[in-house]
Amino acid sequence: MGPLVIPHSQFLIPNFCQGGIRMNDVANRFAAKVFNLSIMRQRLPKGTYKEMLRCIHEGKRMELGTANIVANAMKDWAIEQGATHFTHWFQPMTGITAEKHDSFISPDGTGGGSAPSGIIMEFSGKELVRGESDASSFPSGGLRSTFEARGYTAWDPTSYAFIKDTVLYIPTAFCSYGGEALDMKTPLLRSMEAISRQALRVLKLFGYDGPAPITTVGSEQEYFLVDQGIVDAREDLLLTGRTLLGAKPPKGQELDDHYYGIIKPRVQAFMQELNDELWELGILAKTEHNEVAPAQHELAPIFTTANIAADHNQLTMELMQKIAHRHGMVCLLHEKPFSWVNGSGKHDNWSIATRDGVNLLDPGTTPFENAQFLLFLCAVIQAVDDYQDLLRISVATAGNDHRLGANEAPPAVVSMFLGDELSEVLEAIENDAPYGGHDREQLKIGVDVLPRFPKDATDRNRTSPFAFTGNKFEFRSPGASQSIAKPNIVINTAVAESLRQFADELEGAEDFTQALHDLIQRTIKAHKRILFNGNGYDNHWPQEAERRGLMNLRTTPEALAHLLDEKNVKLFESHGVFSAAELRSRYEILLESYVKILHIEAQTLMDMVGRNILPAVSTFSAKLCENARVKGEVTGVACGYEKARCKEISRLTDEIYALCSTLGEALHHADAAEDTLERAMRYKDEVVAAMAALRAACDSCEAMTPSGEWPYPSMIDILYSVK
Ligand code: ADP
Ligand code: MG
User: Fold this and answer.
1) Whole-model pTM?
2) pLDDT-derived band of residue 3, with 50, 70 and 90 as boundaries?
């Protein structure tokens, strides 16, 4: 039987088509709100279109004259779609996106010195290409001094403009006036350029003479849906996106009955609307299902270039939240909204491909393709080993600290999974030993054909942070709420560095095949410690990892302490991804953000306890006493239950009261630290511990208090709120 070919298959997959975009419309409506190449080809003069292509594919600068033509065409198209405003859309280091809307209106010049009698709709090339913004309220980590508070946004033509809510969105990079990156996109684009440059050098050695390859990314997004009314009644969910307390519900995810389970009608309606809107924005939403925890779901798009994938993931998160509200729900993207059940992550599927779609991490079928594949594979192995700390840092947030290493997500130790077949091949190459297949032939790189690795067989280990899944790597540590730019900046740059070293060595080789063999063998020997096919949740793994010399950076401050290590600064500087000053600013921002998040959480917890929980519990214990008194007076019975409960609750309330003070003192002590790293360390050691102790006492108390008396919805109310 031949392959099953379904035209436009990726657009024909909605399961539920009762409203919104109907089945037959999907292909037509797909990317309807995107100023993409096909629209450009229709609307731009031929020469302009060609210049636009060069600008997108070759990074050529655009002349102002051309930009004027593009801007005008963009505006006409946008107005036809109902747009009245445009915005330079950017991604500051808050991790979310930012925008400021400007209308297209301009006086029509009829008024002379007085008020104009009319307006025209205008949008110039200058406005398209560059925007100024007073950006002093965005985090800059000390890069932007107060006397130079201006930032500017620069058009990124490699990510298409689109329309959302009557506004034309123009994806842009955001920099200081000195040109320092203040955002996520700028370094991502730089890192993509770095890896493209080095990968091209390597490919040329294999006889390739096409354009530079590009990194591809598909990011699977996990999220929770909770009823809006429940969230409104929980200060912690409203302010911090997670529950700071809540007694363990009798049922969580033990029965595995939610994973891939039937999708509830309310969630289905949400998913349908989400798909419709994502498709209109050209986002390739593909797969959706229920995840492990109750109320948890996942959406996976079809992969695209790393830059567009990052933009699309931001839009996806934004639309998830917005559309959930329309359905009376809240979409929680926090990494750990609830104890007792799994948190949410975001798998970052990464590969690198030529412009015509040849995946360089596909093993291929010929000795030649195999050799090239092995070299790229080794580049990734070396990169992950050399820059374990940076990979860990790229996913280090206060929220994600709750997941990594908690046996629900990969451990904090970074390692790589290759699967048995591929590991055996590498072992054979390492030892110049025969490969263990049927005829036990010696494997000669560039001469012999590798065995085929069935894709399924490579993807069984769910506990590995960095897994080879047949033709791509899946980095499983990123947190659900974070921008995927960060991990991809690190992967791109670290792999670029491996490829640079490889190209340096191979370009000068006399016997290419021999040099290739030696290099691959040497790389495997030097970096095999990072390969681990075992169970990442196993208690012995951290010890084994330590024995191998791998890092175990359990928390965000411990990880961030390595960001400015000399080798890391050198890596980013030498590939033009971050200057030392830019890197230092990120370090400050990340530490500050960690501290701020924990500060808000601690304050929220103290507020909930002080203003609502203690008074409520005190009232309840008084009721118990009153009941005991009345019952005793009337009947003379002992009232054992009332008295014992009251004593227990009173003991706990005193404990809670004391623990609240301890938390306050811990906060005070942490905030007093001068140095940002020291402050973050105190938050990690003292504030986190004080919060955990306070929470435990509150949870015990909740378990003894009737739901009608407890001031907040319970974990059962929350997890099972969406019917
Ligand atoms: P798995 O079953 O391993 O999760 P899928 O085929 O379902 O694999 O893909 C998971 C994600 O990986 C999807 O978002 C998909 O688009 C993405 N992906 C697949 N191939 C690539 C690639 N070459 N580069 C980047 N991402 C990819
Ligand atoms: Mg996956």
Assistant:
1) 0.94
2) very low
